[in-house]
Amino acid sequence: MPEGTPESPSGLVAAPLLEVGGVDLAFGGIRALTEVTLQARRGEITAIIGPNGAGKTSLFNAVSGFYRPQRGQLRFGGRDITALPAHQRAALGLARTFQNVALFRGMSVLDNIKLGAHHRSSFGAVAAMAYVGPARRQELELRERLEHEVIDFLEIDHIRHHGVAGLPYGLQKRVELARALAMDPTLLMLDEPVAGMNREETEDMARFILDLQQERGMSVLLIEHDMGLVMDISDHVVVLNFGHVIARGTPEQVKRDPAVIEAYLGAQAVA
Asked: How many Å apart are CA 180 and CA 113, to the nearest integer?
């Protein structure tokens, strides 16, 4: 079995959706990632963990197209995407949220969510401005899809016309997830989705993520510091430290890995 290939509980190797092979990323003399190799399987939740500065968000930025690695290859659905710009990767089915909420604060919840689907619109600028013909039909179809597949699912119908700036932080994070789902992704990349949330908000977000995986078969790549969440919902965990992969495996395997305990979890994590 090639290095970094996760194995299912049945012993069969599932086809990877995302493959990161030997990726190096540096900024001047600072190396953010060194020979990083990992895979994310279809229909599973893969978590990326590690201490602050380990390179987790740099890895997300390389996968989503914000950074171009100096070495290595990125493959998505069997296709080499290493040189593709971010918008083309989004069109292929890569969608992400950000560590810090990145919503348009002067817009409503619904308008923020609709922006996630703009790359799927096929009408021209004149039709869009006039709101006639194909533009109107697509707008109505989009609203109907977002109503059933995103807004109702995330239980945010009651705030759909509210401005996002006045929402509590936990709801803003939910709206950002909704915008990513509006892209109809094949791989959903979540950068610290429960950071700053209270226990109830965290439990709600965990439920949504699990429902996306179990009910919709969505693949999820997750960065998170909440180890309770990671260990509860992840199928596979990859651990970064100083830009290197130091461990990978099931949550239970990673939890008891001596290198991970020393670098990140601490002895109390396995007590």
From this structure: 8
Domain annotation covers residue 153:
no
Any residues with CB less than 8 A from the CB of 224 and at least 6 apart, and which?
A: 47, 49, 190, 192, 193, 194, 195, 230
pLDDT digits (tens, 9 = 90+) for 183-239: 999 999 999 999 989 999 999 999 999 999 999 999 999 999 999 999 999 999 999
The token pair that represents 74 in the structure block: 């990125």
Does any domain span residue 120? no
Cα separation, 76 vs 64, in Å, equals 11
Number of domains within the chain: 1
- The candidate with the shortest Cα–Cα distance to 22, out of 93, 65, 73, is 73
Provide the token pair at 230.
């990671």
- Domain span at residue 7 reads 1-93+224-271
